[in-house]
Amino acid sequence: MTGRPADPGHRPSGVREVIRYNWPMYAAGAATTVAGWALARHLPGRPATLARAVSTTAAALLTTSTLATWHVYDRSELHTYDWLPELLPDGPGDHLVVSTGLDEASRPIAARHPTARQLVADLYDPALTTEGSIRRARRHVPPAPGTVPAHPGALPAATASLDTVLTVLAAHELRRPADRTALFAEAVRTLRPGGTLLLVEHLRDLANTAAYGPGAWHFQPRATWLRHAAEAGMHPAAERRIATLITAFAFRSPSHD
């Protein structure tokens, strides 16, 4: 199956929705751009040069981040899941989709694999997930029917009952390292021997920093995810870049063979 999966109930987020969810950041960038150039007209010499530099930097970050978001979310294969067979050649099997307030993975994965058993868990906790963008996104895209509220240390699946746990652009919203550690440990508990944790994330790396500037610090470095996997006894089985700025990891749970 190729192309964007048909889903009459939901259109995956593109650049328009990302701006909508993060409008305060975009408004601040636009205000900084305008204010810098306006201020420079009334300042002498070096202060005027500094004001123009700040304005130009803000404008450049707005431009690069918007173009990068458009490339990833509107033009790439991210939402089509055409990349999934490379990491899960046998399909997801019995699987759990984990989100943290915005689930845009369960519907297209179910559309691609209609015979696979799917569970959906939402780790959103308003006391911990304090990002305004998540609250706005959640109001715009409510959880899919059947979604079970959950916690990183208590996923709604029996021990050794799953072939795959999928977390797509979700795990980085767990800001506390202990919560991420708990999520990886729970993935191992729920997976059958040799099962897969599929983790899809922006990384705090050179490419994302060039595209998003300081915004890239909201993401975790590659080493963080590798460390969490190692602590849980998992090993990296495959890794794939999507649209340059997204990395998909397949971590394999221990096999008892």
Q: How would you sum up this structure, described in words?
A:
With 257 residues, this protein is α/β, with parallel strands linked by helices. It folds into two domains: 61 residues; 169 residues, Vaccinia Virus protein VP39 (Rossmann fold, 3-Layer(aba) Sandwich). Helix content is 42%, strand content 18%. It has nine helices and seven strands; from the N terminus they run H-H-H-H-E-H-E-H-E-E-H-E-H-H-E-E. Strands 3-2-1-4-5-7-6 form a seven-stranded mixed sheet. Strand 4, helix 7 and strand 5 form a beta-alpha-beta unit. Helix 1 packs across helix 6 and helix 2 runs antiparallel to helix 3. The longest helix is centred in the first third of the chain and has 31 residues. It starts with 14 loop residues before the first helix and ends in a 5-residue tail after the last strand.
How would you summarize this macromolecular structure in one to three sentences?
With 257 residues, the chain is an alpha/beta fold. Helix content is 42%, strand content 18%.
Annotation keywords:
Rossmann fold; seven-stranded mixed sheet; elongated; disordered N terminus
Mean pLDDT: 90
Major sheet description = 7 strands, mixed
User: How is the CATH topology of the largest domain named?
Assistant: Rossmann fold
- Report the CATH architecture of the largest domain: 3-Layer(aba) Sandwich
Shape: elongated
Q: Can you say what the CATH homologous superfamily of the largest domain is? A: Vaccinia Virus protein VP39
Low-confidence stretches: 1-9
Total individual domains: 2
